[in-house]
Amino acid sequence: MADNIEFALSGQAIRMKNIEVSVSMPIKEKDQSGQASSTATAEQGIKAKELSVSGVIPYDDEGQLILLYSLAEAQDGGGKSVRYRVNHDIARKIKLREATFVGSVKASKAANLLAWQVTFTLREFFSTAERKAESRSKGGATAQTAQGTTSATDTPEELSWFERVLKSLDTAIGPYEEDKK
């Protein structure tokens, strides 16, 4: 088993073996069919993403288990759960930057190993969907472009790789001017 650090919270490495991280993003909707057999629903928005983390901590590395539980229990000055910057490959790819512990942190004896099987969940704090909704509610200024209207609050990090390539090509080519007659 490799001892690479794959997961960190605000710079604190969480060393686990056989680490598995999965992500979920609830999309809430409400049934609009009443008692009918219709499949009509009303969208209620995209909710915060959640990272489910599981892995194994060897018995001889109990400091990691203690660290994990102390991070999960930590509260800020206002008595709220501490927010952590999440450093993991999946978190970066889905733009999950800060999260708090939710649900439960579990540790049990791993089958046939001298180790704890550990699982916990982190929920995104101030999600991308929340940032976009806040931007819309503030009535972000708009700018007219050759492609249409875009929000001035759009940032390059919200663009996909392909969109960034297209944007750089568009900038290099310059604006389209019709032939003057």
* Beta-strand percentage range: 35-45%
- Total beta strands: 11
Average pLDDT score: 78
The helix tally amounts to 4
Helix content bin: 10-25%
CATH architecture call of the largest domain:
Beta Barrel
Count structural domains: 2
Identify the strand order in the major beta sheet: 2-1-7-8-9-6-3
What distance separates the N and C termini?
72 Å
**What would CATH call the class of the largest domain?**
Mainly Beta
Query: What sort of overall outline do the alpha carbons produce when their principal axes are compared?
Result: extended
Could you please describe the fold and organization of this structure?
- With 181 residues, this protein is of the alpha+beta class.
- The protein is 22% helix and 36% strand.
- It is built from 4 helices and 11 strands.
- It has helices spanning 62-73, 89-93, 128-137, 161-173; strands at residues 8-9, 12-13, 17-24, 27-31, 41-46, 50-58, 84-87, 98-109, 115-124, 142-145, 148-151.
- The N and C termini lie far apart (72 Å).
Q: What's the SSE blueprint?
A:
Blueprint lengths: L7 E2 L2 E2 L3 E8 L2 E5 L9 E6 L3 E9 L3 H12 L10 E4 L1 H5 L4 E12 L5 E10 L3 H10 L4 E4 L2 E4 L9 H13 L8
Antiparallel strand pairs: 1-2, 1-7, 3-6, 4-5, 6-9, 7-8, 8-9, 10-11
